[in-house]
């Protein structure tokens, strides 16, 4: 079966379920080939994911937030927003209810790049974070070339030496969890960035660390030289193609079974018809014999 065009092959026209699955795959393929990168923010509840994404989206004003901040732990929606060719994806916390984790996980696997957000104040990684990072490492191919460590809410630690110590500890724990040193680390404060904008203080914006991260994100659609996310799109496409193939095979098996059942039923009907014909023949020939003998 060729999947180079959008029309459903003739052979599938009589099978609406297959035809739908095929069309869905073809449109997914187009989306994956043509759409810009998806950047997913992940981390535990209250790490500052939504606030961070708002600064990246440039929508952080009172009542104008692109992503809901300070959201209740139970929020399990995955929201996304496209900004200058990059789709920003906000994840529920990785430490929420099991359902949250499932949602977060599905969203994770659909990401091209990941911002792992961890608060500077939280020196230790929680067990749920370690488990999540372990799974990420296991499930996402080429993670090294598309995972960013974002140390957030740096305004909470005033002493620079203390901040540096904490940053180093976070990097060490993160490295141990994923098995490699993060290729990119940004230390940011969404609060400073926001305050800088509201009060017109360029100095605050500059020390917020957000402009550097914004810059990193904004160059993603341009080239794959720095961050190789395009290569892994092919992987995702293959996974989806495998799922379609499995679906088609399952449907084919089902059709096969139906044919067998119908054939068996028809054979049964045929047998009783044959028996009826045989009885009729016997009957008629019996009658003929009687007529013959009577003559
Ligand atoms: N001090 C400080 N607080 C922040 C910063 N970013 C977020 N917060 C606060 O931390 C809480 C959680 O933020 P949120 O973005 O909703 O975190 P999420 O649960 O990871 O999406 C909210 O009360 C935010 O106002 C920051 O840079 N500095
Ligand atoms: Mg949030």
UniProtKB/TrEMBL annotation:
Start and end residues of each G domain: 38-138
UniProt GO BP: tRNA methylation; tRNA wobble uridine modification
Gene Ontology MF terms: GTP binding
Organism: Achromobacter arsenitoxydans SY8
Any single Pfam family the record assigns to this protein: MMR_HSR1
InterPro entries per record: GTP-bd (IPR006073), P-loop_NTPase (IPR027417)
SUPFAM superfamilies for the chain: P-loop containing nucleoside triphosphate hydrolases
Name of the protein in its database record: G domain-containing protein
GO cellular component terms listed in the entry, alphabetical order: cytoplasm
């Amino acid at each position: 079966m060729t999947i180079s065009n959008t029309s459903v092959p003739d052979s599938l026209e009589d099978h609406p379920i297959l035809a739908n699955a095929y069309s869905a795959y073809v449109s997914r393929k187009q989306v994956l080939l043509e759409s810009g990168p998806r950047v997913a923010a992940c981390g535990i509840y209250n790490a500052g994911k939504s606030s961070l994404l708002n600064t990246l989206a440039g929508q952080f004003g009172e009542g104008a937030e692109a992503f809901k901040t300070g959201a209740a732990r139970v929020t399990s929606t995955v929201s996304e927003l496209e900004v200058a060719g990059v789709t920003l994806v906000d994840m529920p916390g990785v430490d929420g209810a099991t359902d949250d984790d499932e949602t977060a996980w599905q969203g994770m696997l659909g990401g091209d790049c990941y911002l792992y957000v961890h608060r500077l104040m939280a020196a230790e990684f929680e067990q749920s974070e370690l488990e999540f990072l372990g799974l990420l490492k296991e499930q996402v191919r080429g993670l090294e070339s598309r995972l960013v460590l974002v140390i957030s809410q740096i305004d909470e630690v005033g002493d620079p030496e203390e901040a540096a110590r904490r940053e180093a500890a976070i990097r060490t724990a993160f490295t141990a969890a994923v098995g490699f040193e993060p290729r990119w680390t940004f230390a940011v404060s969404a609060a400073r960035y926001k305050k800088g904008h509201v009060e017109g203080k360029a100095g605050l914006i500059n020390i917020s660390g957000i402009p550097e991260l914004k810059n990193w994100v904004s160059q993603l659609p341009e080239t794959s030289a720095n961050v190789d996310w395009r290569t892994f799109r092919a992987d995702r496409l293959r996974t989806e193609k495998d799922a379609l193939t499995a679906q088609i095979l399952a449907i084919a098996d089902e059709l096969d079974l139906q044919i067998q059942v119908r054939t068996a039923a028809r054979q049964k009907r045929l047998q009783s018809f044959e028996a009826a014909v045989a009885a009729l023949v016997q009957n008629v020939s019996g009658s003929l014999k009687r007529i013959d003998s009577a003559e």
